[in-house]
Amino acid sequence: MTQKERYEAAKEMYAAIGVDTDAAIAALKEIPVSLHCWQGDDVTGFDHDGPLTGGIQTTGDYPGKARTPEELMQDMAKALELMPGKKKLNLHASYAIFEEGEYVDRDKIEPKHFAKWVEFAKERNMGIDFNPTFFSHDKIKDGLTLSSPDEETRKFWIEHGKACIRISEYFAKETGMPCVMNIWTGDGYKDIPADRMGPRMRYKESIEEILSEPFDKNLVKPCVESKVFGIGVESYTAGSAEFTLSFAATHEGCLPLMDNGHYHPTEVVSDKIPALLCFFPEIALHITRPVRWDSDHVVLFDDETKEIAKEIVRNDALGRVYMALDYFDAGINRISAWTVGFRSWQKALLSALCTPNQELKKMQEENRMTELMVWQEDIKTYPFGDVWEEYCRQCGVIADKSWFEAVRQYEEEVLLKR
Length: 418
Ligand code: RNT
Ligand code: ZN
What we know:
Layout lengths: L2 H14 L4 H8 L3 E5 L32 H13 L4 E7 L22 H9 L4 E4 L19 H25 L3 E5 L4 E2 L7 H15 L8 E6 L10 E2 L3 H10 L4 E5 L9 H9 L5 E5 L15 H12 L6 E5 L8 H20 L3 H9 L3 H11 L4 H12 L8 H10 L5
Parallel strand pairs: 1-2, 1-10, 2-3, 4-6, 6-8, 8-9, 9-10
Antiparallel strand pairs: 5-7
The protein binds L-rhamnitol and zinc ion.
The site of zinc ion has 4 residues, from loops.
């Protein structure tokens, strides 16, 4: 059977259960997913020499890590060629690009320091998302930034946040697509604090000050990301789930951002999405793979990833959920890490789009739960691979694992020479 014949056969099978695979493919092509620049250099960035801090960590020392903006862009361009679908670029402020001999601190960064990234994005028709960087910097005082009791420290980081709002608006204007600007800090304590509310009140006020910077709400989408704990800050995190959710709920135009590595291990973000969609017009996600903890492994086409995609699709929320990948594995080829993660999330979305959601909902509403189980199990072995292949063909990328040959060759010719 040719690929075309296989797809036609699959299409018929899906049509019989009420799924239009052509429509699913067409829909997926229009959904932007943000690809994080930080997988390419183990979250190092270009604006400092110090270690990665803030309670996050990369492990592994696979050769070929990008060391300069040029290398990072070259690597990302390679990875982008191997992925189907619509991509957005996700940058951190620490990826500012300075001219030879130039340097400004994070409170003074300007749009011009990201002009090369804008050029990179525009050439590829990508929008840009942005993140102020509240880690890996010497102005973090006693592990705190926006929640610090030290006025000067707080002020510095507030100015950083404001600078990032201006840069986010510049990205949106340049690319014609809204910029999601995510606020995450690793602020917290290693051991039992005596005051849990004080840091949170200061954190709240600091974010409010950042958001007092004027911006167009259609262009910049500020978010607040929660977390349970980080390495070295195991006992207390200022930006907890309750804190960020309440902040977003009480500050118009501010979105809650859920990272699926940031909850207790038996909590699932797939169940939280439909809860938040009842209240928020828009929400944002960091899609990752936590292994026993917030380990940020490469995203795979696994059960919870599929479940997250299902909740977005079957609640008709593709236009309300901003999706970004967030993981960093330094132990494998980084271009492959980007590619596997992005393709896995694309598979999850396509698979959700190829689910007879209306039929299944109806079964639930009519309490035909036995039948629902039978259907849900049956769909698992439908010929999804043939639909995926057709989607990749239409997007002009290789469908099967042979894309890895391009990575292997690039590793030999470029990465191993670094
Ligand atoms: C850390 C958060 C945060 C970072 C990036 C680099 O636990 O998930 O989103 O991963 O900002
Ligand atoms: Zn995250």
